[in-house]
Design a protein that fits this description.
This protein has 5 helices and no strands. It is mainly α. It starts with about 30 loop residues before the first helix and ends with a helix.
Length: about 190
């Protein structure tokens, strides 16, 4: 009969219901739990496992939870792909909205301008308005009236009157540095005498 090894290669595997060869025979006397623990503490062996079969105790740390599980990573990749997929259509939508707003503003400005021009066209249908505009723009008068033109050009009016145009104006003052330099020159001229 061949011996079967455990997957870890630790030795012969026990079949259910089969006793280990190294196990001591059971005696018929009952043993209290305290005595069993005392006996195992003295021998350093477990009361339930024989020493030959005892595996070395390895201390392991509790598994650290991973920050990103596979599902979380896939979800994150899908969300990034969706965000990247929707950025272009959203940008196009916002651009179209701004274009629509600017066109509506231009249309409102054009309607306002059309309204102003319509009012002005209605004024030109009135004979009295035409008469006022002819007098104002073209200096037209009825026969027998004397036109009076007010000149607002002081230089032209002074020229027509025969006076020099600069006679009423005072000369601008010299810059401060010219005044300072001329006073230095005058003081230097006095010291040379």
């Amino acid at each position: 009969m061949t011996q079967r090894l455990t997957p870890g290669g630790q030795g012969p595997a026990r079949r259910p219901g089969q006793r280990s060869r190294a196990a001591p025979p059971r005696t018929g006397r009952p043993v209290s739990r305290g005595a069993e623990a005392k006996e195992s503490a003295e021998t350093g062996r477990s009361a339930n496992r024989p020493a030959a079969r005892r595996a070395p105790v390895r201390r392991t740390n509790a598994p650290q939870p991973r920050r990103f599980t596979g599902r979380a990573t896939v979800l994150l990749v899908v969300l990034i792909a969706l965000a990247l997929g929707y950025t272009y259509p959203v940008r196009v939508y916002l651009t179209q909205q701004s274009d629509i707003a600017s066109m509506e503003q231009a249309q409102a400005d054009q309607r306002r301008r059309i309204g102003e021009l319509s009012e002005q066209a209605a004024l030109w249908k009135d004979e009295r308005y035409i008469e006022i505009q002819a007098r104002k723009r073209f200096y037209m008068v009825y026969p027998g009236e004397v036109p009076l033109v007010v000149l607002t050009d002081p230089e032209g009016a002074a020229r027509d009157a025969g006076t020099p145009p600069d006679a009423g104006k005072s000369q601008p003052a010299d810059p401060w540095y010219d005044t300072l330099w001329s006073s230095i020159q005058a003081a230097d001229a006095e010291s040379d005498r």
